[in-house]
Request: fold
Amino acid sequence: MALAGDMQQKTGTKPAARAFKALEMPELEYTPGLAKEMAPLYEKVKHVIPSVEWPFFAPYIRAINELKKERGAVVLAHNYQTPEIFHCVSDIAGDSLQLAKEAAKVDADVIVQCGVHFMAETSKLLNPQKTVLIPDVKAGCSLADSITGKDVRLLREKFPGVPIVTYVNTSAEVKAESDICCTSSNALQIVESFGTDRVLCIPDEFLAKNIAKQTDVKILTWKGHCEVHERFTAEELRQYRKDDPNIVIIAHPECPPEVVEEADFSGSTSGMINWVKENQPKRVVMVTECSMSDNVAVENPNVEFVRPCNLCPHMKRISLKNILESLVYMREEVTVDPAVAVKARRAVERMINLGN
Ligand code: 13P
Ligand code: SF4
Reply:
């Protein structure tokens, strides 16, 4: 985990492309009028947000949605954000690839990234003229912190001619040293796109090993892990099946390979969501960050979700309170060193163009 100071450095203190004034913090009272106005929205999320919590959330949700209009802002939210963010204030929600693609198309002056720092950096790379804000600059990622640009340069020296694919869960500095990026939903396609017999797929060791099982390309990797997905064990999954032989298990490819092997399906966060929508299992375990089950449950009332609760502490740094503060005070602005950005953008755009 990077220290707050490191993140501050990465984020920088350059002023926004457009000058924005701080606004007054809006009133956050839960009045009978507000309760009435927000009732249709609560109806949608009532199964995953307890009624005792709604009076606290509702004033924030209304204030954020009003301020978005005033600032000309869009909120991009990753699938791991909590339901009051995912369903009530986000304009675009999705997995890492969808967020990167959508960020490239955004028609707004301001992007508020509800996710972790590498996601906000990717949005900034694709929108250099726009103001990209992250509500908590300390929202890091154990994978992004596992490798530096210098490490990638050393790998290139050690394996000359071997293409370097880096997971989007990395800093702009690391992306800048690589040939192309990938996400969990396109890693296999990207690895095979070079037509070489060897590819470096870094820094997620487990994603690389899970991909290696599906291709003849020899994959070299790194020792980075997601601190959320590495905690799941195959034994735990076998226990779910022992308790209920009809249970369906779907796992994210950041899990260790023996965990993915025990699962009935593996895919990116959106891949998992779509699988549930299409297959409507009676009972399912989503072996991934646990807020996602709440988000998916809203749209799949006939599916019972068994929720092993592994939370990502970085994703959970984002809250309605700091999203509102972000829009009021226009902080924290994400910037990327222009020399790094040119090369990092190329790696992200290659990935997006390959998919298109
Ligand atoms: P995807 O949403 O691309 O599957 O990535 C999961 C993740 O760990 C993001 O932090
Ligand atoms: Fe990083 Fe894992 Fe958290 Fe995703 S869930 S942000 S990969 S630590």
Q: What stands out?
A: The radius of gyration is 20 Å.
